[in-house]
Design a protein that fits this description.
Layout lengths: L8 H4 L4 H16 L3 H14 L3 E2 L11 E6 L3 E6 L9 E7 L4 E12 L2 E9 L12 E8 L5 E6 L19 H4 L3 H4 L6 E5 L10 H14 L9 E7 L4 E3 L5 E4 L2 H15 L7 E7 L16 H14 L4 H9 L2 E4 L3 E2 L21 E4 L3 E2 L10 H13 L4 E3 L9 E2 L3 H5 L4 E6 L1 E2 L7 E4 H16 L3
Parallel strand pairs: 1-2, 4-13, 4-14, 14-20, 15-21, 16-18
Antiparallel strand pairs: 2-3, 3-13, 5-6, 5-10, 6-9, 7-8, 7-10, 11-12, 12-22, 16-20, 17-19
Helix pairs in contact: 2-7, 7-12, 8-9
């Protein structure tokens, strides 16, 4: 018996007009949804147009009923009632909306020698040197003392100024060159340059004062309002095709908005599935899935309890536990694409190759599978059968060599309920960099794979 024959997804791919349009929608999703709030707002709007109703407004959960749950405006779940009762289990695809970035500190604004800056605290795993000397934008919300929400986006429109973090000129970088790469740029050195046009008023820190006047005039923000703000520094500019043949997509936050978008497209046109069908969009994955919008917050469990109650007319804790334990899920997250420029950190026999389709990962974790959800082979066999039947190009991979490092996903936080879980996404080049690279063919295959998984009748 020979092993699975490696095929390029391009060889299997005849892209429909609908799929071409979906790639355009994905580029817009990356360009306009650069924070978890913005991403969920887009998804929630699409879901509303597709007939999903907010949980609080739903009176029952009969086959075909579409329900949505927003979690603090930064995460959420979409569900469609299946023909089978939810107590028999459900199908779930779960991705995350947050991405590595720089967050603005609570007391960020200061002036130094006529230059005004905002102090930042990096979020998630970044290479700090990648965030200097490049165009940056500021996205987020400021909640005023009276509860009023001020939305801010600076650096994206053609008429907007961009922001940036300065770097040291090479002529004076002798000592910087001698440092390890991780130490050459410090976290406290990632200070966002705001301006240097001083106020006409007399006194000290006239540039800072001018910035405060600008914030007050344009947004109604006082300096103290930074305490109740959620402002994120992200790369400026739109996602776009990459490569002379336009075979790649370049954009910020593809880990993991590429899987989030594919999950949405998978459920978008489902009307009355055999199994109750869910897609979940989590927050805080990049920093451990904590807080009340992360996967550890149990909103999936609470949502299933609500659906069981809607379906049966009364709460039944045992039925909730059965539904969760009998569920089958794909943890939708990306993995490292094989890059010949850095082949030394990859196990070539167990790598995700660009253009060879969707990737399944039996386990993630670090080194000895630490903090991993190790999928059962019975479930892997079921998923590969679904993909083969639907003629999906797929491959299997690990995240680099065993002792090189590693990483985790939200799979383990679903597995605690006893459900079957398998990591499934696409390979990404330059993962966690300000601009990440995905393959158009892989993205299309992932959308097909997720849809096939949700509608499969076993």
């Amino acid at each position: 018996m020979s092993s699975k024959k490696v095929k390029l997804a391009w060889d299997e791919l005849i892209m429909s007009e609908q799929e071409r349009q979906a790639i355009g929608e994905y580029l817009a999703f990356l360009s306009e949804g650069k924070t978890e709030r913005e991403s969920w707002q887009m998804l929630e709007g699409w879901a509303r147009n597709a007939g999903f109703i907010e949980l609080d407004e739903v009176k029952g959960f009969k086959p075909g009923q579409k329900v949505s749950l927003a979690v603090r405006g930064k995460a959420g779940i979409l569900a469609i009632a299946g023909i089978r009762p939810i107590s028999e289990g459900f199908r779930l695809i779960a991705a995350h909306l947050d991405a590595p970035r720089l967050d603005i500190k609570q007391r960020p604004l200061y002036e130094e020698e006529g230059l005004a800056f905002l102090k930042t605290h990096y979020y998630g795993g970044i290479k700090k040197y990648q965030w200097t000397a490049m165009p940056l934008a500021l996205h987020g919300v400021v909640i005023l003392r009276d509860g009023h929400i001020v939305e801010i986006v600076v650096g994206e429109a053609d008429e907007d100024p961009i922001l940036t973090i300065t770097d040291l000129l090479p002529h004076l970088a002798k000592d910087q060159y001698d440092k390890k790469l991780r130490e050459a740029i410090t976290g406290e050195g990632l200070n966002l340059l705001l301006g240097h046009d001083p106020s006409k008023e007399d006194g000290e820190e006239r540039v800072k004062l001018a910035i405060l006047h600008l914030l007050k005039d344009k947004y109604g923000i006082e300096e103290d309002d930074f305490v109740s703000a959620e402002l994120e520094v992200v790369p400026a500019g739109k996602a776009r095709y990459a490569g002379l043949d336009r075979s790649f997509i370049a954009g910020y936050g593809q880990d993991d908005r590429v899987c989030s978008f594919a999950a949405w497209k998978a459920i978008e046109e489902i009307e009355q599935p055999e199994w109750t069908t869910l897609v979940l969009f989590a927050d805080k994955e990049e920093i451990g899935s904590d807080s009340n919008t992360g996967m550890k917050a149990r909103y999936l469990e609470n949502f299933i309890a609500e659906l069981v109650t809607l379906q049966n007319g009364t709460y039944d804790g045992l039925m909730v536990r059965r539904a969760l334990a009998r569920a089958k899920a794909l943890s939708a997250d990306v993995t490292a694409g094989y890059d010949p420029n850095y082949a030394e950190v990859m196990d070539k026999r167990n790598s995700a190759f660009m253009g060879r389709g969707v990737v399944i990962c039996k386990y993630t974790g670090s080194r000895g599978k630490s903090e991993s959800s190790d999928a059962n082979p019975e479930f892997i066999a079921e998923v590969r059968g679904i993909f083969d039947e639907a003629k999906i190009s797929w491959q299997t991979a690990e995240l680099g060599k065993v002792d090189q490092g590693g990483g985790g996903t939200i799979a383990q936080y679903m597995a605690i309920y006893g459900m079957e879980v398998l990591d499934c996404g696409v390979g990404i080049l330059s993962m966690h960099a300000p601009w990440e690279i995905s393959s158009v063919a892989d993205v299309i295959m992932m959308m097909r794979a997720y849809h096939a998984f949700l509608v499969y009748k076993d």
